[in-house]
Amino acid sequence: GQAAERLPGTPVLEIKKLDAVLQYLPSD
Fold first, then answer.
1. Nearest-10 Cα torsion for 11, 13, 19, 25
2. What secondary structure letter does DSSP report for 25?
3. Any alpha helices (H) in 1-28, and if so which ranges?
4. Tell me, what's the pLDDT at 2?
């Protein structure tokens, strides 16, 4: 999530949504 937070113009809601999705993806 920290990488997305550094992207300019990215809404906080989008960041939280991405973080939530990434948690369901395999970590491999």
1. -110
2. S
3. 2-5, 12-24
4. 64
Domain tally, the chain:
1
Query: Considering the entire predicted model, what is its pTM?
Result: 0.43
Sequence-separated (6 or more) residues with CB below 8 Å from residue 15 = 1, 4, 5
Lookup result for tokens 């113009």:
9
Q: What pLDDT is recorded for position 15?
A: 85
Domain of residue 16, residue span: 1-28
From 3, 23, 25, 5, select the one nearest 13 (Cα to Cα): 5
pLDDT in tens, 1-28: 566 566 677 688 888 998 898 888 877 6
